[in-house]
Amino acid sequence: MLAVSPMELFELAAVVVAAGAISGLLAGLFGIGGGAVMVPVFYQLLGVIGVDESVRMHVAVATSTGVILPTSLRSYFAHKARGAVDMELLRGWVVWVPLGVILATALAAFISSEGLRAIFAVIALVLAARMLLNRDSWRLGTALPGNPGRAIFGSVLGFLSTLMGIGGGVINNTFMTLYGRSMHQAVATSSGVGVLISIPATIGYIVAGWGRPELPPFSLGFVNAVGVALLIPVSLWVTPYGVRLAHALSRRKLEILFGLFLISVSIKFGWSLL
Questions:
Q1: pLDDT in tens, 107-141
Q2: How many domains does the chain have?
Q3: CB contact set of 200 (below 8 Å; sequence gap of 6+)
Q4: How far apart are CA 79 and CA 99, in angstroms?
Q5: Domain enclosing residue 266, as ranges
Q6: What is the three-class DSSP state of 212?
Q7: Is 1 part of any domain?
Q8: pLDDT tens, residue by residue, 35-47
């Protein structure tokens, strides 16, 4: 590890706290756990303090899943209190989403840092295009598909979200709106999806990275305990403000904000691959 001065430590802590505030706000606003913000920020911070490139992206993704659980829970209960969550959809995914998560954590140990960043950038860009170019006529149906299609999609949702270190909102929002559900209900339900993803993902990343010598101090497998401890309190505090903002904005404004946000994330990771 490289030596870090007290001032550098203070600056790094300040950036992590700021990332926690942003991720918490986004958890409420978009029904996500904030991973799309935390992962690129953590990736950069871990590079500054000398974490090996071979595990840097893995630690960023895994630590993000550890933070997603409390922010998703708080967002979920806040949205549920407003009656906006599709409980039937969540119950149907209780098995299938975690199944995809388990497969992803098992595979993640064998994927390179560049591979994880490429996955993150491509999926974020595709979803951003969907949000920004959205038309009301873009529909795959007027009702969500039944099984086995719904079960398969739930597993794919869990798989891709875990490899990105996100709570599934970026994918589930698109899925639900393409089948005629309102953006507000999609956002609310996505907070529950984040809960289904974060629990098995955190456990899986701990197991997948256990004993790796390149990991930074205070790591449980790929999950860094210091990062989780710093991000959770701030994220929990600001999440309700994001929920209030989500219910105050129109559907189209939510889609535009969401799309611009995803483009910025995709550009950041795409640039890092050059």
A1: 998 999 889 989 888 988 887 887 788 666 678 88
A2: 1
A3: 98, 101, 102, 105
A4: 25
A5: 6-272
A6: coil
A7: no
A8: 777 787 778 778 8
